[in-house]
Each structure stands twice: as structure tokens, then as C-alpha cells.
Structure to design on (141 residues):
């Protein structure tokens, strides 16, 4: 399983994340995105209006290296944050079934390779692990 039950439950409550991609010149781009988790495939799918025309879509088509961060601030006093970072390899797919009438037929599909979470679960600590056949073991960051 790619994500824990606590991570899946948390992501289901969050409408936005930030997707980092690498531009052809090596510089980074960070974009706000909506997303959904495909539990069956263990992937994160990003849809959007005219997604195929965006720089992030072309960055993914060029090299596929991505990181998605979804986080929020639970409280300022005491300072309490939580979130999930998903690093992986992504595909820029065309002619896919749109998620809604608002979205185009392109999607970015992220195949997680490393997951880092904090403030989620019973101990609310920070944890990281490699997933989907990647080398390494779960542990504290």
C-alpha cells in the first residue's frame, strides 16, 4: 500500500497541494494544484482546466521528477502543523477521462517513491519511507 490509512484520510480532507516540477533549464517550478488519490493504483492524479497547455504538464512530460506537498496549520497556539510530502516519478497523460466537466482530458499521474508525513497519526511525529519497491525502510526523519 502506498499511503497509510491516516495519510489517505488526511489527503481526503485537503483540497489543494503544491506541485514542484523541474523545468528543462533545471530551474524549479512550484504550482498550486487540486489532486485525488487513486487507492487502487496507489497514484496521485492531478487534473486541471487546460492542463495540457501548462508549464507544469510540459515539465512532467520532459523529465517526470516531482514532489507534491499537502499541508495545513491546525493551530497557531500551540503551533501545530501537519502534512504529507510525496516525491516520485510522474507521467503526463493525454486523452484521459476528465474528473469533471471543468477539467481537460490531460492528467499528471504521480507514482510515489518516497512519502514523508508529519502531524498525522497516533504519535503525530515525522515519518518517512520509500514505497512502491523503492529501497529503504520506514523511519523517523
Amino acid at each position: 500500500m502506498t499511503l497509510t490509512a491516516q495519510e489517505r484520510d488526511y489527503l481526503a480532507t485537503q483540497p489543494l497541494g503544491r506541485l514542484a516540477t523541474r523545468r528543462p533549464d533545471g530551474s524549479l517550478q512550484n504550482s498550486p494544484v487540486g489532486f485525488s488519490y487513486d487507492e487502487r493504483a496507489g497514484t496521485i492524479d492531478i487534473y486541471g482546466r487546460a492542463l495540457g497547455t501548462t508549464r507544469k504538464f510540459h515539465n512532467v512530460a520532459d523529465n517526470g521528477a516531482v514532489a507534491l506537498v499537502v499541508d495545513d496549520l491546525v493551530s497557531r497556539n500551540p503551533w501545530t502543523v501537519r502534512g504529507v510530502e510525496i516525491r516520485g516519478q510522474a507521467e503526463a497523460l493525454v486523452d484521459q477521462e476528465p474528473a469533471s466537466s471543468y477539467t481537460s482530458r490531460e492528467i499528471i499521474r504521480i507514482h510515489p517513491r518516497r512519502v514523508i508525513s508529519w502531524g498525522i497519526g497516533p504519535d503525530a511525529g515525522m515519518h518517512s519511507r520509500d514505497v512502491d519497491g523503492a529501497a529503504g525502510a520506514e523511519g523517523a526523519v
Q: What stands out?
A: The chain has one domain: 5-73+83-113.
